[in-house]
Design a protein that fits this description.
172 residues, 9% strand
Length: 172
């Protein structure tokens, strides 16, 4: 300690190292608490459940539930306010024809979700509309909900995008 007192550079480097270490540890703790304990920024996050299907062998796997499974769960589950479906496999890059009609296909990352998805999460779109239960009916018009980032990046924040149709490269 006496030698450190004699060397001002060594003393300051130790103090700075300790300060940075303690600061990083505190910041990591705040982030971990927000993610692990405070939950997701959705309505009633502590009451939301995620369910997966089971394969024919009976092993637990993240198989998606079929639409008939979701309807069956909705009817049979007591004490559950609502059931919604979403694809578990994450966001996939879906190709769409460019809105201008020229150039390479537009690739929007997205996932499939049921009509009650946004209602269950308590998410309300800023513009346009969210998915509805009527959107789950076979033959219903396909609906897309854009994130703010996708709206800004791919459509320049143009309000005229709402209500427009995009033609999928895959589904036509």
């Amino acid at each position: 300690m006496r030698r450190l007192g004699n060397s001002l550079v060594s003393s300051w480097s130790i103090v700075l190292t300790l300060g940075l270490g303690i600061g990083l540890a505190a910041a990591t703790g705040v982030v971990a608490r927000a993610v692990a304990f405070d939950g997701l920024p959705i309505r009633d996050a502590d009451r939301v459940l995620m369910l997966w299907g089971v394969d024919r062998a009976g092993s637990f796997s993240h198989l998606p539930l079929r639409p008939t499974d979701v309807a069956s769960l909705t009817e049979r589950m007591r004490g559950v306010a609502d059931v919604a479906a979403a694809d578990y496999n994450g966001a996939t890059a879906w190709p769409f024809h460019s809105p201008s009609g020229s150039g390479a296909p537009l690739r929007l990352r997205g996932t499939l979700a049921g009509g009650r998805y946004f209602d269950v999460l308590g998410a309300v779109p800023v513009l346009g509309r969210a998915l509805r239960a009527e959107d789950d009916v076979i033959g219903a018009e396909r609906v897309m909900v854009l994130s703010h980032a996708a709206w800004r990046r791919h459509f320049g924040g143009d309000l005229r995008v709402i209500g427009r149709s995009l033609k999928s490269v895959i589904f036509g």
